[in-house]
Amino acid sequence: MTSLARYRISSLPSRSITALLLALLAHFLTGCAGRGASAAAVGLKNSLTLHASFDNGLDAEFAKGNPSLRHAPSMKERARAVAGLPPAGEVMLAGGEGITGNALRFVRKESPVVYFEALKNVAWNATNWSGTVSFWLRLDPETELEPGFTDPIQITPHAWNDAAFFVEFGKDEQPRHFRLGAYADFKVWNPANREWGEIPFEEKPLVAVTRPPFSRDRWTHVAFVWDNFNTGRADGVARLYLNGELQGALSPRVQTFTWDPAQSLVMLGLSYIGLWDELAIFDRALTEVEIRLLKEKPGLLSTR
């Protein structure tokens, strides 16, 4: 530091010197935080297997598998699938209504199944499998959803209770509960073949939120994470996040998901009514810091 600079600083009142030092410290910390966020963004993008913002159309902007959004009369009738949205208008591209840009709008409970193929878009691993799914919802569950279970997303080659992930709004509670389901192979989680209604809730592979923060007036970020699946050990865990905050987790257990990836689907908006946006799937379990970053910067993944 030059003698002139030392003179100028030393001639300042002590309060001004303190303020100057605090400002310099804040600038330094902001720069560090910015570099940290940039590094985290790179890590997130490098872990993507599928990203569909719907801002540039229906197909995924990034996909390791088939980027095409498709629809079929039902999961079992996927041989009749067609690219794009149902022509009768049960699901529409809502221009300018997304968290950033466009979104999907589901308008009727009874509608064809809208999906992405899971092959390569979900990085299934037969021996040690981890991953994360992130998306946004905007709805009032109490006034917009029709009676019955509603699954904003379901990922499986079989059925909701057999090697499947889903998040759901319940059908009987007031207000409706919101749950993550991480159902291993049916014979693994329910070896005695008990009736679902007879199984105590604490034995079901569900994470429940009794008062979820969904609203018609604002977007809610949803993310779920799984780790140590298909290890054959009782160490598989799954966690549910809403708006970047951990809501609950499944205790460690054997989580065997036997998949034929070519038959697996990422289904959107089953019996759902409301806005749906920004699907992102990752090939690893994201950290809480990374999930919070996705919530704070919803357009982050669109700049590849």
Summarize the structure in words.
It is built from five helices and 17 strands. The protein has 304 residues and is an alpha+beta fold. It has helices at residues 3-10, 14-46, 141-144, 186-189, 288-296, and strands at 48-52, 62-63, 70-72, 82-83, 91-94, 103-106, 113-117, 129-138, 150-156, 164-169, 178-183, 206-209, 220-229, 236-242, 245-253, 265-270, 274-282. Helices cover 19% and strands 33% of the residues. The longest helix has 33 residues, at 14-46.
Secondary structure: helix percent: 10-25%
Number of helices: 5
Number of strands: 17
* Anisotropy-based shape: globular
Structural class: alpha+beta
Nearest-integer average pLDDT = 91
Beta-strand content estimate: 25-35%
| Largest sheet, strands/sense/barrel | 9 strands, antiparallel
Compact description:
The chain has five helices and 17 strands. The protein is an alpha+beta fold and 304 residues long. It is globular and about 75 Å long.
Which secondary structure elements does this structure contain, and how are they paired or packed?
Elements: H1 3-10, H2 14-46, E1 48-52, E2 62-63, E3 70-72, E4 82-83, E5 91-94, E6 103-106, E7 113-117, E8 129-138, H3 141-144, E9 150-156, E10 164-169, E11 178-183, H4 186-189, E12 206-209, E13 220-229, E14 236-242, E15 245-253, E16 265-270, E17 274-282, H5 288-296
Antiparallel strand pairs: 1-2, 1-17, 3-4, 3-7, 5-6, 6-17, 7-16, 8-13, 8-17, 9-10, 9-16, 10-11, 11-12, 13-14, 14-15
